[in-house]
Amino acid sequence: MNAATKFARLGTDNAPGQEARLGEANGAWLRGEPLPGRPVDFSHGDVDAHPPTPGSFEAFSAGVAAGGAQAYTEYRGSAAIREILAERLAAFTGAAVDARDGLILTPGTQGALFLSIGATVSAGDKVAIVQPDYFANRKLVEFLEAELIPVRMDYAGVASGAGLDLTQLEEAFRAGAKVFLFSNPNNPAGVVYSPAEIAGIAELAGRYGATVIVDQLYSRLLYPGVTYTHLRATMPDNVVTIMGPSKTESLSGYRLGVAFGDPAIVERMEKLQAIVSLRAPGYSQAVLRTWFDEPAGWMADRIKAHQAIRDDLIAGFRGIEGCVVRPADAGSYVFPRLPKLAIPPQDFVTALRTQAGVTVTPGSEFSPHATDSIRLNFSQDHAASVAAVERIAALVERYRA
Amino acid sequence: MNAATKFARLGTDNAPGQEARLGEANGAWLRGEPLPGRPVDFSHGDVDAHPPTPGSFEAFSAGVAAGGAQAYTEYRGSAAIREILAERLAAFTGAAVDARDGLILTPGTQGALFLSIGATVSAGDKVAIVQPDYFANRKLVEFLEAELIPVRMDYAGVASGAGLDLTQLEEAFRAGAKVFLFSNPNNPAGVVYSPAEIAGIAELAGRYGATVIVDQLYSRLLYPGVTYTHLRATMPDNVVTIMGPSKTESLSGYRLGVAFGDPAIVERMEKLQAIVSLRAPGYSQAVLRTWFDEPAGWMADRIKAHQAIRDDLIAGFRGIEGCVVRPADAGSYVFPRLPKLAIPPQDFVTALRTQAGVTVTPGSEFSPHATDSIRLNFSQDHAASVAAVERIAALVERYRA
After folding, report:
1. N or C: which end of chain A has fewer CB within 10 A?
2. Do A138 and A232 fall within a single domain?
3. Model ipTM?
4. Is the pLDDT of residue A218 over 70?
């Protein structure tokens, strides 16, 4: 396949944050007048409403003051910072982290995701991917000219856990998938895999000799009453865990992520990082010194603030007749399935943006079977996001089939 | 090819900056005692000796203060910053730059290089690459499972220009290479392509419909008397130019690069960036506001300081009998070819590190035909680097064949 053909499949027009590149809607099919209200961009979190961890800028400044030693680190990141993080990540996940050989710092969690897949998947390989899941997973597999085997997750059909179809996962392994990639908590649905589901994944991957890449980006923003199970504490080998301080901690402007686990895979990831971006930003790496070391009570307050927004938005969506929605177990996503509309889903997303000042990500980015859903990142101003969901409800009625 | 096999070829053990991961030399074959002196790491520039552009940290701080608007930009980078840069890059290169569609900000110049190759080369494609040239060029082609066609450059055999073999370049195009990738000034040799060479590249690429990616990372650090020709001013289509403020401007700790040119290729690069790292660091992007807007006289002083170091190091290498060296036309690399030694080149590099406190990059990273050369980045403390070259000369005598 030539490069032009390959890239024609990798659409990013509807990717979160790229709305600025979309033209204005041709108004002919729009119904009624625009709805007034403060615009809300639910495509990503609002780091002005939920500001970065205290001390992060000071840590960056100290990195600049350190000069060349912080600007130029090993490709896998500063050894001193890896030492600090390895201990904290081990405590958080319940299994040892090898600071020298089993941990790499990356440009954003996206960087960690690319490197882990790029280091384990080649052209023609089969990769098991959950549907729905983070939109880049599928695109990464396509860029590498590998083959995707979808595994269903019926998050709306279960009251707890993710609703992963373990039978389909086994079929994927039996069909030759050597890598399984999933996010936990799930992006976009916000659900957390149950202990039994994690045990099932570990058992199957072990039996079929598969590598598992688990994206735990939102695993710190856990709501009360939810049990979170770290795969790496259950499955010692062939696992790469991905995290980063971009979301809960609002440090996205520094572009930082980490991946940790199997040293053989981390070594390949560093080789790939060497030719893709060399290293995570030198000075920014210093900001990781603040990670898992937030002021007392800070994380609890952040979780409480997000829980309150979540509950109000869920109530808003439940007020829409025929809308199916499940509260997030963790993280800041909500993924409501809308009732049947008279216009195509993509047009409704356009109507939301042009008529309601509300930017959401279409469900088709996450699964071909989720075109009737929309994803909202509710890490936003509380009042503005509640009002925005009221406008979504109003537009659903306007365009209802 | 499976991922493990593919990565076995992508060695980074001898890549610049990775020396910390090499073990200590087994001393049995080492001759004589260590030489005293301040250690110098010539594998990359010393940003403490040549500090970042004035105002860069203040620009970063303003980016943090701007909050979400600077943290989250389009994947191709902030539109406002692209507007500013497009004008300055057009003035520098002598051809218009399309701020909206023809320019992308990347995590380091390495990011721009990966994206431009990843966006134009697929598995099985043929890519023409200069020998010697930047070590990552070859590795990128290998990662993409494409085929490398080498094109010779006899920089030591000519007094000016790069000594590119245009006949071999035409043969590469005739053999099916659809992409030609080269650095100008050349890394590692520091030579600048002559106007006739650039015209020849443009003519051949045009005739064979090839895309050209030109890495101009060091093109601002130009020594007096050298004419620099921008390919993009000669060849309007199918060219991507790569630059960044990491070197001359010592802004490497912020990890910033840019690529500009053909909008169709830039669009693909953005799609790839979306899945590789999302975007260049949000806050760091703000530092680009200082680029090409340095205080009056600052760039002239920086060039003068580097010219003085260059001249002293060249004199040092010319004092070694049998050493072949050509002064850089631009940039901060020197690539001396050493006389015949009694130990393998890789062992001599190890001896330099362990016995002389001098870190250099082996020539084999840049070309299989340059194993007898070493690369030094002379953006260093002046006195320390002169003393380090004296120690190199002493070790050459100690290990001379």
Report:
1. C
2. yes
3. 0.96
4. yes
Contact A153, A163 (CB under 8 A): yes
* CATH number for B301: 3.90.1150.10
State the smallest CA–CA distance between residue A273 and chain B in angstroms.
9
Chain A CB contacts of B110 under 8 Å are: 275-278
A155: three-class secondary structure by DSSP: helix
Burial of B217 (0-12, 13-18, 19+ CB in 10 A): buried
* Cβ pair B253:A64 closer than 8 A: yes
Structure tokens at A286: 């210093």
Which positions 294-313 of B are in contact with A (Cβ < 8 Å)? none
pLDDT in tens, B12-68: 677 777 777 776 666 789 999 999 999 999 999 999 999 999 999 999 999 999 999
Same-domain status, B279 and B266 = yes
**With an 8 Å Cβ cutoff, is B18 touching chain A?**
yes
Judge whether B306 lies within some domain: yes
Is B351 a member of any domain?
yes
* Same domain assignment for residues A264 and A309: no
pLDDT tens figures, A144-199 = 999 999 999 999 999 999 999 999 999 999 999 999 999 999 999 999 999 999 99
Tell me the residue type at B316: G
Domain boundary among A232, A265, A290: A290
Amino acid at A282: G
Element containing residue A359 per DSSP (H, E): strand A358-359
- Give a yes or no: residue B14 inside a domain: no
Q: Is A142 helix (H, G, I), strand (E, B) or coil?
A: helix
Range of the domain at A137: 56-290
CATH of the domain at A142: 3.40.640.10
Distance CA A263, CA B378 (A): 34
Least Cα distance to A2 among A149, A145, A148, A119 occurs for A145
Compute how many other C-beta atoms are within 10 angstroms of the C-beta atom of residue B326.
Answer: 21
Please name which of B387, B388, B400, B375 lies closest in space to residue B320, comparing C-alpha atoms: B400
A290-345: per-residue pLDDT in tens? 999 999 999 999 999 999 999 999 999 999 999 999 999 999 999 999 999 999 99
Spatial distance between the Cα atoms of B176 and A317, rounded to a whole number of angstroms? 57
Domain co-membership, A113 together with A203:
yes
Residues B86 and B35 in one domain: no
B130 and B192 fall within a common domain? yes
**For residue B21, which residues of chain A lie inside 8 Å, CB to CB?**
74
In a domain, B310, yes or no: yes
| Domains contained in chain A, number | 2
Report how far residue A105's alpha carbon sits from residue A114's, in angstroms, rounded to the nearest whole number: 13
pLDDT tens per residue, range A103-136 = 999 999 999 999 999 999 999 999 999 999 999 9
Domain match, A75 and A107 both? yes
CA distance A367 to A369: 5
Using CA atoms, how far apart are residues A300 and B169, in angstroms rounded to an integer? Answer: 62
C-alpha to C-alpha distance for B49 and B289, rounded to whole angstroms: 23
How far apart CA B39 and CA B22 sit, in angstroms, is: 17
How many other β-carbons are positioned within 10 Å of the β-carbon of residue A288? 28
Tokens 């070493």 map to which residue?
B374
Residues A145, A153: contact at Cβ < 8 Å? no
Distance CA B72, CA B283 (A): 9
Contact A190, A134 (CB under 8 A): no
Q: A-chain residues within 8 Å CB-CB of B280?
A: 255
Residue A214: which H helix or E strand, with range? strand A211-215
Cβ neighbour number for residue A55 with a 10 Å cutoff: 15
* Residue B239: count of CB within 10 angstroms of its CB: 23
Select from B232, B255, B290 the last residue of a domain: B290
> Is B89 in the same domain as B187?
yes
| Residue contact B7–A70, C-beta within 8 A | no
Q: Which pLDDT does position B27 carry in this prediction?
A: 75
